[in-house]
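Q: Here's a chain of 651 amino acids. Please give me its 3D structure as tokens.
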Amino acid sequence: MALFKKKTKPEAPMDLEAVMKKFDQESNVRIWEGKPRIAVNCVLAAFSLFCLYVTLFASWLEELRLTTFVAWIVFLGFLVFPARKSHQKPNHIPWYDILTMVLGTGAFLYFSFNAVTIIQQGTRFAPYQIVIGIIGILALAEVCRRSVGLPILIVAGCFLAYALIAGLSNPTLWGKLNYIVRYLFYSKEGILSTPVNVCSKFIVVFIIFGAFLERTGIADFFINVANSILGSLSGGPAKVAVVASALLGMVSGSSVANTVGSGSVTIPLMKKTGYDSEFAAATEASASTGGQIMPPIMGAAAFLMADYVQIPYGQIALKAILPAVLYFAGIFVAVHLEAKKLGLRGLSREELPRLRPLLKKVYLLLPLVLLVYLVSTSTRSIQYAAAIAIVAAIFVSLFDKKNRITPKRLLEALAAGGQGTITVAAACGIAGVIAGTITMTGLANMLINGIVMLAGNQVLIALLLTMICCIVLGMGVPTTATYCIMAATCAPILIRMGVPAIAAHFFVFYFGIVADLTPPVALAAYAGAAIAQGNPMKTAITATKLAVAAFIVPYVFALNPAMLFVDTNLVGVITISVTSFVGIFAVSASLEGYLKTDMPWYERVVCCVGGLMLIFPGVTTDVIGVAMVALVFVMQFAAAKKSGTLPNPAE
């Protein structure tokens, strides 16, 4: 019989803004009120309009376009983000921030206005130009510190220190500094390399699109629809969290923002149903983190991947579908088994929204459907597809008085898009510095040769070492920046070992993301724990267990890229999908220690090994895996029948 936990003293309402500021660096912004707030929003909106114009209509010299874009980022970075979280005065910006803002913006504008001359002068740079470059690099680094955090700067600092001390052959310090600044500031191999280029051309338009789509009320629509369909099932709110977060992930690319946004609704409902605080928080955190692997947006990294691998963005999004479905299926299975183990019911129908009225708002999906159609059919360029989707979002909002995008909300959406771009662009700029430093010192080849030599001919060893590298370097670093670093350092290692390029890039992308769940720097899990008022470390460990698919699926498509629709046919895709799903189900059941009744340790071991055998590609391993998992199923059914705990099918 299903049980609810006994009622406890009501918890104090959670300050979601405080949670965001604690765990999401991007939320620590200056306090602007009244007319100054309107003025700042107008400047941010002007930046968004500038980006839309340049990416859709202008045909500027690339150096001019990129330096102007970064100049905007530096200017807005100091305008929006304070030097410290505390001791903020409303409508106040210190003189030293204004000075740094002017100098940093001026450094990039100097490059903008003199782009042709600088390109033509080759390697002959005057000392004052090197000083200007240093100012520009430091100003961008400070914007990154304020909006993103220290971890990525520590990584960049270590690589730059290596370049100055041992990585370059120039005998003098000034000679090394001169070369570094020329390479990182004045060429397209550093700050102005692929990450910033892709950000200015593609990512910014999709960030603006996400800001508009958010204002149509689509997030509430996803949560309510998931609640209506799944809320009454066993452990319903947890299943709602998984499905809603998967859908919201198509719009937002931030693990922490997803966790706090949907978790504020789903976590209290999960606790009410009977899940403990840590499990509820871990479910939301693991599902929200998975939003970054969910097409079509995929945390903006899909656009970078398309440029690195030279595959159209639509194909990247298509290849991401099956791994993403398996990831969420693994979490869904885990929360279902946990609910069965605890004997939890869902919510009553009276507590849930009715589906029929919700279906009247299905028009909210039009912008997403239109975007996917335009991109997948290559009817329009990616930028134009996103721009058309923005217009569609404004149009569908007109049918809902509550969420109608009025001129005021139009300004707010453009401002939100501009503000959201600052963090991604700053992280991309510093990621370009890291990748540029690795390239100019030859460290990339040294790293690749070292790991290839260490791994020998064993691809699994190379995958394991790469996984560790990605998780460590990804801790506290945004997804886009993590992927840029991994694409420059770790992906070539796997490609050298024979892994297809697309599979190698997906592999490093996945393990860069799970750093948001993996202790000790599990920001999404800690944000969820704050909302649930649970233990942060226990939440992070539970979230890692729930997201076990994220640690398994990348190995599957690295060893057998059929999951990414590479060198396969329909039968191959179906085979690997079915065996991987059954394998993930078995591994999840093993970790939960429950299938039809509690599993003894030896059944858990057999179930886990059998699941892994099914996931590992190959006919022999599949047959052995099926036999082992089937044996555990039979033993579980027999044990449940003997103990009288086998549920009545009518229930």
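Q: Can you summarize the key feature?
A: The radius of gyration is 25 Å.
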